Amino acid sequence: MVNQLSWKVGGQQGEGIDSTGEIFAVALNRIGYYLYSYRHFSSRIKGGHTNNKIRVSTQEIRSVSDDLDILVAFDQETIDLNAHELNADGIIIGDAKFNPTKPDNCQATLYAVPFSEIAKELGTTLMKNMVAIGASSAVLGLDVNDYQEVVEEIFLSKGQQVVEKNMEAIWAGYRYLIKEAGDTLKTFQLEKADGQSRLFMIGNDAISLGAIAAGVRFMAAYPITPASEIMEYLIQKLPEVGGTVIQTEDEMAAVTMAIGLLKYLRLVKFK
Questions:
Q1: Distance in angstroms (rounded) separating the CA atoms of residues 164 and 155
Q2: What is the DSSP track for 254-265?
């Protein structure tokens, strides 16, 4: 058993990479693990490589890891770009759809799991990220039931059937890897967490919370990755303290509106 490890999921932007990492991380946070993550985005609305790297630990570390134990890949590019981070005893879990291969100098163990095919059989390929979470859980020795609460929070508004389908997808990924690998399954079984509840937020949430604490009560903005979450957070929280957010048609309009407000309030002098 290990008391810490590094996990990364990667693929094309728009494939649900961010949500895969979020569900994985929130579930582990709820059962008491410390989590530290870094997200990589391409400067595009859709397409281009993106990944989410998460360090999981039973103790406070306060940093992400340079190396990598488990890589979940939705395309071959993810393996090609990130395999150099893998430890010699690392694991790659790739979607069988693209016939994953590893570089010649990579010593990690590769498992091909049909994320897309399993998800399609369950109703939609959109759930392939849930299948991947299940396969990851098999390697980590995690209890799939720990995802139930998080999945309900995210999908219950779409109906109980959607919740059940997503949980079924997680279980399917878990069972597939357990069955196919059998006794040869290589694992990084985590030591049990302490079960304590801890504050869990991304950097954009921290920026937003800091802004409110500093007295910010107005935001004019145009949503764009990776800063959109600041706007989303403040849309929810600013009204609670008498503030507001206005979404503009572009970045220039946002700057113009903010300057106009400052001028109106006479907080900035203009020549």
A1: 9
A2: HHHHHHHHHHHT
Q: At what angle do helices 160-181 and 128-140 cross, to 10 degrees?
A: 50
How far from 43 is each of 10, 28, 137, 253, CA to CA, in Å?
A: 15, 29, 31, 21
Burial (0-12, 13-18, 19+ Cβ within 10 Å), 32: middle
Separate counts of helices (H) and strands (E) for the chain: 9, 8
Tokens standing for 158? Answer: 């779409």
CB 34 within 8 A of CB 194: no
Amino acid letter, residue 179: K
Q: How far apart (Å, rounded) are the C-alpha atoms in residues 37 and 63?
A: 8
Placement of tokens 């279980």 in the chain: 171
Q: Is the pTM of this model over 0.70?
A: yes
Amino acid at 239: P
Each residue's pLDDT, cut to its tens digit, for the chain (271 residues) gives: 899 999 999 999 888 898 999 999 999 999 999 999 998 877 666 778 999 999 999 999 989 999 999 999 999 999 999 999 999 999 999 999 999 999 999 999 999 999 999 999 999 999 999 999 999 999 999 999 999 999 999 999 999 999 999 999 999 999 999 999 998 899 898 999 999 988 888 889 999 999 999 999 999 999 987 788 999 999 999 999 999 999 999 999 999 998 888 887 776 565 5
**Could you give the dihedral angle defined by the CA atoms of residues 12, 120, 150 and 190, in that order, rounded to the nearest 10 degrees?**
-80
Cis peptide before 239 (omega within 30 of 0): no
Do the beta carbons of residue 183 and residue 173 sit within 8 Å?
A: no
